[in-house]
């Protein structure tokens, strides 16, 4: 029995129950939580239950006879209630999926392609930005060399002021839990 069948069995209460008790518990769980992680878990569970119910419904329909009419109706009702539950969960969730991902899924492609493309785009933009930063550093270094030849005393005082300022910023950053690159330190979740 795979996870979708196990989820469906749990929803229908074992062998063909109507799933009313499980549905009532799911609705209570939906109203009790506002945590985004919990909402995501509820969405995942609801999707798994829906997939399990659809699988059971497929099995019931594919071997339909007059005796299987009641289980078919019960499974249809369970599916409708789970879809209703999914709508309630969706109202409380703020999960955002880019339209590009949905379009890829509609086209029958793997949504991981979108992630790969976004990462590759970020890498190329990062390389361009790094190149610009390196160019400005080279320009700054060249200007300082030229200024040092023309105005050695002023450049020396500039470097002293710059070193003092950098030391002060470093002390300030350490006292405020700011990383040297400007990011804030964040406690890791356990």
From TrEMBL:
Belongs to the Mediator complex subunit 10 family. Transmembrane segments: none annotated. Keywords: Activator, Nucleus, Transcription, Transcription regulation. Coiled coil: none annotated. The lineage of its organism: Eukaryota, Viridiplantae, Streptophyta, Embryophyta, Tracheophyta. One of its GO terms (molecular function) is transcription coregulator activity. It comes from the Eukaryota. One of its GO terms (biological process) is positive regulation of transcription by RNA polymerase II. Component of the Mediator complex, a coactivator involved in the regulated transcription of nearly all RNA polymerase II-dependent genes. Mediator functions as a bridge to convey information from gene-specific regulatory proteins to the basal RNA polymerase II transcription machinery. Mediator is recruited to promoters by direct interactions with regulatory proteins and serves as a scaffold for the assembly of a functional preinitiation complex with RNA polymerase II and the general transcription factors. GO terms for cellular component: mediator complex. It comes from Carya illinoinensis (Pecan). Component of the Mediator complex. InterPro entries: Mediator_Med10 (IPR019145). PANTHER family: MEDIATOR OF RNA POLYMERASE II TRANSCRIPTION SUBUNIT 10, MEDIATOR OF RNA POLYMERASE II TRANSCRIPTION SUBUNIT 10A-RELATED. It is found in: Nucleus. This is Mediator of RNA polymerase II transcription subunit 10.
């Amino acid at each position: 029995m795979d996870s979708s069948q196990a989820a469906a069995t749990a929803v229908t209460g074992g062998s063909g129950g109507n799933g009313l008790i499980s549905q009532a518990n799911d609705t209570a769980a939906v109203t009790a939580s506002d945590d985004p992680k919990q909402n995501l878990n509820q969405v995942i569970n609801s999707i798994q239950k829906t997939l399990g119910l659809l699988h059971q419904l497929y099995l019931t329909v594919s071997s339909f006879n007059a005796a299987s009419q009641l289980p078919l109706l019960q499974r249809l009702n369970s599916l409708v209630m789970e879809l209703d539950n999914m709508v309630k969960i969706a109202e409380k969730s703020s999960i955002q999926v880019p339209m590009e991902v949905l379009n890829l899924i509609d086209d029958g492609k793997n949504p991981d392609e979108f992630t790969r493309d976004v990462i590759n785009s970020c890498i190329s933009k990062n390389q361009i930005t790094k190149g610009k930063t390196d160019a400005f550093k080279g320009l700054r270094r060249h200007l300082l060399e030229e200024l040092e030849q023309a105005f050695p005393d002023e450049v020396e005082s500039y470097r002293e002021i710059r070193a003092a300022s950098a030391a002060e910023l470093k002390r300030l950053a350490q006292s405020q839990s700011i990383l040297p690159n400007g990011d804030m330190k964040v406690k890791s979740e356990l």
